[in-house]
Automatic annotation (TrEMBL), chain A:
GO BP of this protein: signal transduction
PANTHER family attached to this UniProt entry: PAC DOMAIN-CONTAINING PROTEIN (PTHR43304:SF1), PHYTOCHROME-LIKE PROTEIN CPH1 (PTHR43304)
Domain (Histidine kinase) ranges: 575-785
Name of the molecule in the record: histidine kinase
Transmembrane regions: 20-39, 260-282
Lineage: Bacteria, Pseudomonadati, Bacteroidota, Flavobacteriia, Flavobacteriales
Record-linked InterPro entries: CHASE_dom, CHASE_sf, HATPase_C_sf, HATPase_dom, His_kinase_dom, PAC, PAS, PAS-assoc_C
EC number: 2.7.13.3
Gene3D superfamilies named among the record's database cross-references: CHASE domain, Histidine kinase-like ATPase, C-terminal domain, PAS domain
GO cellular component terms given for this protein: membrane
Domain PAS: 322-373, 430-490
From TrEMBL, chain B:
Database matches in Gene3D superfamilies: 3.40.50.2300
SMART domains membership: REC (SM00448)
Taxonomy, superkingdom: Bacteria
Taxonomy of the source species: Bacteria, Pseudomonadati, Bacteroidota, Flavobacteriia, Flavobacteriales
Official protein name in the record: Response regulator receiver domain-containing protein
Domain Response regulatory positions: 5-127
Residue list for modification 4-aspartylphosphate: D58
Entry's Gene Ontology BP terms: phosphorelay signal transduction system
InterPro entries: CheY-like_superfamily, Sig_transdc_resp-reg_receiver, TCS_response_regulator
UniProt keyword terms in alphabetical order: Phosphoprotein
UniProt entry tagged with the keyword Phosphoprotein: yes
């Protein structure tokens, strides 16, 4: 068990560490491969050593064979020496020896160390009589042979007869006394051939032969390739007959490496590959394992989170069967909101506790949710609590099925908004109160957000004051401009725009046009409110001041009237003073003259003048009386008078004058026209104007007088148009209706007629207008109220 | 000092007559002439080039009144190279007429009617 668990632990340890595991695999594989390569290397090496030993053995035998042959040859040669010490049949024996032993190139007999006999002589002539015992090169080897009394090979050494060769010398003793040597000469090449080196010549090994130089005592090598091989795995064998050492040397130590390097490389790569493979292989599960672990922890966390949310949320959360509407579960808050316990809600469905007025909308929403028309929905609705209390909640329903999945359950999140609803209600009520308050203000209250035309709010009072609804105002940015009285529009817009631009309050009185066409005087007071740095609000109130304005206008009119009357009175007093004074001064002057004169006739003449002055004075006083009577007659009788009838009567009075002046009177006044006027005044007015028109006729043409009547601005107008001399209105306009103002030299003009007529018309609240061009004619317009 | 010539411009025939007679009786002036209004006087001045030393001028007159006459006279004066002394003689006591008269350079004084001996003497002796 413990082992199993250890393995499992190790497994998971390895699985979770792909890199380490990969490295391990790599190392293990590499070691295994290396080991096997090593063993293989060792084996090959051993085989090689063995091979070398074999070859060396064969070579040694070959050399020994040569030496044996040489030995036999020297013995044979030695035997030819007779007791006297002279060789017998040297030539014959030698010949047969050289011929029978390929490895021997020449034989010699060297009595007392001096070469005397040589076969074949050809090519060896130079060696004859060479004293070897006195040659430093050969002496040592020769002495050694004598000493050991056995054949001893010297060389390879430079031969006296030329070339390099090996010389084997056998000391010959005759009767116990040294005779000389029997020698064989083997050329070095022959020697080499006999060794059989060439048969073993291959890439793997080479050979070397060495000998201690007798003179220098240093080891001397004789074969080619004298490179230092002391570090190589060489093998050697000693050949005592010549003091030679035979070496076999492996040619290239690296060839083995070269042989094993690719294998090593391949195995390295293979190991690496395996390591990587393992790493990647393990990596995936490891990653997956990590991922699963992460997901699991996430899942656990989110599960915890959701559990926490569900249990402790400030919102009521319930899980509901979407088909039946029954509650599957609900959190504490939900139970608290609706006042049921966890167990009780499981017996309920949402329809049972929903207010009947909200149920249909809820069910409709659920239906749309089930059909997939909506992804979720929110609504405000009422629940019945267990105790019967009604609460307002904000419900959010989210389905727990995916699209195209079977309809299962849903989550309903419920927030108790009863308090909010109550405060909203309060706000609404207070807003309504403010609105009512604003609407109760006896003026149109409005608000705008910018200098640009257009308003954002206007109180209902606009309907009662100007007849337009707030909707009509709001709909058109230029509405206000449009309903300003045309005569006031331009200056009001200009001024208000200026004030708005300069952020100055605006307070002006102007006229607006009511929807029914009436003129309404308003006072417009506009204030500016800075809500924040960049936000500005214009608030204003339009107060209906038509009544007070009317009073003001009436008052102004009265003032104007009084001023006018005052002026007239002053004028009148001037007139009175002027006229009376002109007469009195004349009287004074006349009396003065009368006193001065002594001539009776002149006195009478002056008295006559005095009389006429007094008459004129009388007439003036009469005229003044008449004027005074008009001005003091505060309530003259006013009747409906047929205008045409009075015109005809006047024309009758003026018949003589009309005939005399051949005047053409064209009366176009309709017979039905009536005017409200004092009868006596009307007679006087008509007489005055018509007679004036005849009186001031143009001398060059027949007078034509046209009478027309029409209605203008609620006035009945009588127009009297003549083609007379005309009046220079520019010069005399202001004096036209003054007393005793005459502008012609006409003898009949008295300067009182128009003055009286004007007074009479003014008293009747009418007015006179005049248009005239000099030498063309005059048109008087009499406006009857 | 030679006697001055005096002309009267007034629409009131009685005033004209009486004043002229008074002047003649006093023998303070060498010549007297009367016109009913400004037009008539101007017409005469333009035709004859005969300008008096003194004019007694009424204001309220039909046709051409005293003020219009004064405006015209300034024009004629320039042509005739003669200076005329004007006395406005009016029965008006309106102060605006007095003020207006003062604006005219050539108007020497504003006299209230009637013109009596004392006033004539002042006119005759004035520079």
């Amino acid at each position: 068990m413990s082992l199993d668990s250890k393995i499992t632990t190790l497994n998971s340890w390895l699985l979770s560490r792909p890199k380490t595991s990969g490295m391990l695999v790599f190392i293990i594989l590499l070691s295994v491969f290396n080991l096997s390569i090593y063993f293989r290397y060792q084996t090959v090496k051993e085989i090689e050593q063995h091979d070398m030993a074999n070859i060396l053995g064969v070579v040694k035998q070959n050399i020994e064979q040569t030496m044996r042959n040489s030995y036999v040859a020297t013995i044979t040669l030695a035997l030819t020496i007779d007791d006297s010490g002279n060789p017998k049949n040297f030539e014959e024996v030698s010949k047969s020896l050289v011929n029978s032993y390929n490895s021997i190139d020449a034989v010699q007999l060297v009595p007392n160390g001096i070469i005397k006999y040589t076969y074949p002589i050809k090519g060896n002539e130079a060696a004859t009589n060479f004293d070897i015992l006195h040659s430093p090169l050969h002496r040592k080897a020769a002495l050694k042979a004598i000493k050991t009394k056995a054949i001893y090979f010297s060389g390879p050494v430079a031969l006296k007869q030329g070339g390099i060769g090996v010389v084997g010398r056998l000391p010959i003793f005759k009767k116990g006394k040294f005779w000389g040597f029997s020698a064989v000469v083997v050329h070095f090449n022959t020697f080499l051939k006999s060794t059989g080196f060439s048969t073993f010549k291959n890439d793997k090994y080479y050979f070397q032969i060495s000998k201690i130089n007798p003179i220098t005592n240093k080891e001397e090598f004789f074969l080619e390739n004298k490179s230092d091989f002391s570090k190589s795995d060489y093998q050697k064998v000693e050949i005592p007959e010549g003091d030679w050492t035979l070496y076999i040397i492996p040619k290239k130590q690296s060839y083995l490496l070269a042989e094993f390097f690719p294998i090593a490389l391949i195995s390295f790569c293979l190991s690496l590959l395996c390591g990587l493979f393992v790493t990647t292989l393990l990596k995936k599960p490891s990653e997956l394992q990590e991922f699963v672990k992460l997901q699991t922890s996430k899942l656990r966390r989110s599960e915890f989170l959701f559990k926490s949310i569900f249990d402790h949320a400030g919102l009521g959360i319930s899980h509901i069967n979407s088909s039946t509407g029954t509650f599957i579960d609900g959190n504490d808050k939900f139970c608290e909101i609706i006042g049921y316990t966890h167990e009780e809600i499981k017996e309920l469905n949402f329809m049972m506790i929903t207010h009947p007025d909200d149920l249909q909308l809820d069910l409709d929403n659920m239906e749309r949710l089930r059909k997939g028309e909506i992804a979720q929905f929110s609504m405000e609705k009422r629940y019945f609590r267990k105790n019967g209390e009604i609460i307002w909640v904000n419900l959010t329903v989210s389905p727990l099925w995916e699209k195209d999945e079977k309809i299962k359950t849903h989550i309903a999140i419920v927030e108790d908004i009863t308090k909010r609803r109550a405060s909203e209600q309060l706000i609404l009520e207070s807003q309504q109160k403010i609105k009512d308050l604003i609407d109760s203000i006896d003026g149109i209250v409005w608000e705008g957000n910018s200098e640009e035309p257009g308003i954002t709010f206007i109180s209902k009072k606009s309907e009662s004051i100007l007849g337009y609804t707030p909707e009509e105002w709001i709909a058109d940015d230029y509405f206000w401009r449009k309903i300003i009285h045309p005569e006031d529009r331009d200056w009001v817009i200009k001024k208000s725009a200026e004030c708005a631009k300069e952020r100055k309050p605006f307070d002006s009185e102007y006229r607006m046009i009511h929807k029914n066409g009436n003129t309404v005087w308003v006072r417009d007071i506009v204030s500016i409110y800075h809500e924040s740095e960049n936000s500005i609000k214009f608030r204003g109130i339009l107060i209906d001041i038509t009544k007070s304005k009317q009073f003001e206008i009436d008052l102004n009119n009265s003032l104007k009237l009084v001023t006018e009357q005052n002026k007239r009175l002053l004028n009148f007093s001037h007139i009175v003073s002027h006229n009376l004074r002109s007469h009195t001064s004349n009287i004074q002057s006349l009396i003065n003259l009368i006193e001065l004169t002594e001539d009776k006739k002149e006195e009478e003449e002056l008295l006559a003048l005095l009389k006429s002055v007094s008459e004129a004075l009388n007439e003036t006083i009469d005229n003044l009386n008449e004027v005074v009577s008009i001005q003091t007659d505060i309530t003259p009788v006013i009747e409906d008078l047929n205008l045409n009838k009075y015109i005809n009567r006047t024309l009758e009075v003026l018949r003589d004058q009309i005939l005399k002046n051949d005047a053409d009177i064209r009366n176009n006044v309709p017979e039905t026209v009536t005017v409200k006027f004092n009868p006596a005044y009307l007679e006087s007015v008509l007489l005055n104007f018509i007679s004036n028109s005849i009186r001031y006729k143009h001398p060059d043409r027949k007078p034509v007088i046209e009478l027309n009547s029409y209605i203008e601005n609620n006035f009945q107008v009588l127009e009297i148009k003549d083609n007379g001399i005309g009046i220079d209105l520019k010069k005399n306009g202001d004096k036209l209706f003054g007393m005793y103002k005459t502008f012609t030299n006409n003898a009949e003009s008295r300067g009182i007629g128009l003055f009286i007529s004007k007074n009479q018309i003014d008293t009747m609240n009418g007015k006179i207008e005049v248009e005239s061009t000099l030498n063309e004619g005059t048109t008087f317009k009499i406006y009857f109220k | 000092m030679p006697q001055k010539r005096i002309y009267i411009i007034d629409d009131d025939p009685i005033y004209q007559l009486v004043t002229k007679r008074l002047i003649e009786k006093t023998s303070l002036f060498s010549e007297t002439r009367a016109f009913v209004n400004g037009h008539e006087a101007l017409h005469y001045f333009e035709n004859t080039g005969d300008l008096p030393d003194v004019i007694l001028l009424d204001i309220e007159m039909p046709g051409m009144d005293g003020w219009d006459f004064l405006d015209e006279l300034i024009r004629i004066e320039k042509n005739c190279h003669k200076k005329v002394t004007i006395y406005v003689a009016s029965s008006s006591i309106a102060s605006e007429d007095k003020i207006k008269a003062q604006n005219y350079h050539c108007v020497k004084d504003f006299l209230s009617k009637p013109i009596n001996l004392e006033k004539l003497k002042v006119i005759a002796e004035a520079e």
